[in-house]
Write a structure and sequence with these properties.
The structure holds 2 protein chains of 2 kinds. Chain A is of the alpha/beta class. In chain A, about 35% of the residues lie in helices and about 25% in strands. In chain B, helix 6 links the parallel strand 7 and strand 8. The chains are: A alpha/beta, B alpha/beta.
């Protein structure tokens, strides 16, 4: 278990059609570090196309940045030895947005958990493995008898997302990289999920990088927040400070755009559509392909 | 009553005693339980309520898009389009209904849902709607499409694009432009900004307000987000368990809610951001 995950000058460019130099820069010179101790929750907030998911892919080693490096315990994750890479793989765990896409519909959900037991040799007997699985399911407030033996389509989105958290719980990583994990969940299930993440931080000392476009979840989680726009991190600080005294104009715009539930506080200024259109053009989802093949 | 054809009635929609049930094998579930509501011409009426309160069921029932096992079991919905005879929306069928749709009564769905056809260019989706509901406008299509796109702040080049080339906010604005293509009397918008980023949401709300100001469209906006209603609506109707618990001017509803549930709904809104402090 290493104590630090660090991004140093990470840049990610994609080939793009119809732009001046044939490239768009999704992530531009991003540097930040996450410490395993003390455990913390750091949110990365930005709108669609800001580059936040690309950063998640970089941190998880799914996409090699075009410049700069991702360091785990001081070493470039793309230059680790086999043993170091295995450790990194176990110690940095992802939770993705879509609780539907993560499961193979032909297998029972147990498989995802048993795979972890076997791959990471968490238990030497089947009984111990099952005990571990059941313990982790209870830790995410799922009743083992309600979920084990079921197929993904028989569970709700919230239950599936919590199974991924149970898997994380079994592995006890130092770092969780959660990319929009609650965007497809409704309000009540969302709160459940966030509470579990907070639980993991307090009880098991896990540090989470929480990627989202939703400011209210950032507010709920607390901790620190980084604001990203057009591939650049423009502000970082404690949630309470950034939310109440934002220093960057983009953060101000973001906060001002939350519709206030007060008819006397209606927006008086307008947002220029052109400005946002340019942001839309930075959306790497359209018309681009990664420079390096995705592993 | 002043519902003479050619005359403009004050209410676009008069809903009386509307009831909708979903039949299940454990009996009927009443989703809408006797709603009385007038939608005034030129207003933006917000429909608020939590998930399961029946607000979307109300919308699909008004649009006559309700599918089995849902069925309307009572009430009437008098629709007064300008320059046409008033009709009970629950009693029109076939061709009569088809003629009303889009040209008098239209629908703005949630843009993140797959509302646009992924294999058609934006301009072809406009053509589809316009030729289906107003074939006589065929010759003016080339002029209409860029003008409609401009109304929602989109460039003419968007017409040649496919939905996957558009961002979520752009898709929602294309849907808005399609919804108002035939200058309808009433647009029913179901969660028009849900699942969009806050900044894009603000642009969409801005554009919706513009549609009313510039073109006099009457809007019924369904949203679970009280912030959206506070920013956009003239009046707000609050639904709870299939009933309307309160209807009033937006300032009155927020500042002086008459109903206990409305008060709860407003108090439960998390306060964040600078202006709330």
């Amino acid at each position: 278990m290493k104590s630090e995950l660090e991004l140093r000058g990470v840049q990610q460019r994609f080939h793009a059609r119809g732009v001046a130099d044939g490239y768009i820069t999704a992530v531009d010179d991003v540097s930040f570090s996450l410490a395993a101790s003390p455990p913390q929750i750091v949110s990365l907030v930005g709108q669609s196309g800001s580059g936040k998911s690309t950063i998640a892919r970089n941190v998880l080693g799914l996409q090699k940045p075009t410049a700069g490096s991702v360091l785990y315990g001081g070493k470039d994750i793309f230059k680790l030895s086999r043993a170091e890479y295995d450790e990194y793989r176990r110690d940095v765990q992802p939770v993705f947005q879509d609780p539907y896409a993560i499961f193979n519909p032909f297998y029972r959900v147990d498989r995802v958990l048993w795979k972890a037991v076997k791959k990471f040799k968490l238990a030497d007997t089947r009984a111990k493995g099952l005990e571990l699985i059941e313990e982790s399911l209870r830790a995410v407030r799922l009743e083992p008898e309600n979920v084990l033996g079921r197929y993904p389509h028989q569970l709700s989105g919230g239950q599936r997302q919590r199974i991924m958290l149970a898997r994380v719980h079994m592995l006890r990583p130092s770092f969780i990289i959660a990319d929009e994990p609650v965007s497809m969940l409704d309000a009540q299930v969302r709160k459940h999920f966030l509470d579990i993440l907070l639980d993991f931080q307090i009880k098991h000392g896990m540090t989470t990088l929480f990627i989202t476009h939703d400011l209210s979840t950032v507010y709920y989680l607390g901790g620190e927040v980084m604001v990203i726009t057009k591939g650049e991190i423009v502000e970082r600080g404690p949630v309470s400070t950034v939310m109440h005294e934002p220093s960057h104009p983009y953060t101000k715009l973001l906060l001002d755009s939350i519709p206030q539930p007060d008819p006397d506080q209606r927006w008086t200024s307008r947002i220029a559509v052109d400005e946002l259109e340019r942001l839309d053009d930075a959306n790497p989802a359209a018309d681009t392909k990664p420079e390096a093949p995705i592993i | 009553m002043n519902n003479v054809p050619g005359n403009v009635s004050e209410s676009v929609l008069e809903i009386k005693g509307l009831e909708v049930v979903y039949s299940t094998n454990r009996g009927d579930v009443k989703a809408v339980r006797g709603i009385d509501l007038d939608v005034r011409r030129g207003e933006i009426l917000g429909i608020a309520g939590e998930s399961g309160s029946g607000k979307s069921t109300l919308a699909v029932a008004l649009l006559r898009l309700l599918k089995a096992p849902g069925k309307v079991t009572g009430g009437s919905v008098l629709f007064n389009p300008a320059g046409r005879s008033p009709v009970d929306l629950l009693k029109v069928h076939g061709e009569e209904l088809r003629v009303l749709r889009w040209s008098a009564l239209s629908y703005l769905p949630q843009g993140s849902m797959s509302s646009l056809n992924p294999v058609m260019r934006v301009e072809d989706q406009f053509k589809d709607v316009i030729l289906e509901h107003a074939p006589e406008r065929k010759s003016s299509l080339h002029e209409m499409i860029p003008r409609l796109l401009a109304q929602v702040g989109l460039e003419p080049r968007v017409a040649r694009m496919y939905p996957h080339e558009l961002s979520g906010g752009m898709k929602q604005r294309v849907l808005m432009a399609i919804a108002v293509a035939l200058e309808p009397d009433l647009v029913i918008a179901d969660e028009p900004t849900t699942a969009l980023d806050v900044t894009i949401q603000r642009v969409i709300l801005q554009s919706l307000a513009d549609l009313r100001t510039d073109f006099g469209v009457t809007l019924m906006v369904i949203s679970h987000d009280m912030g959206v209603h506070a920013q956009l609506a003239d009046r707000v109707a609050v639904m709870y368990e299939g009933q309307l618990v309160e209807v009033g001017d937006v300032r009155q509803v927020f500042k002086d809610p008459q109903d206990a549930y409305t008060r709860q709904l407003i108090e439960s809104i998390p306060k964040l951001g600078r202006r709330a402090s």
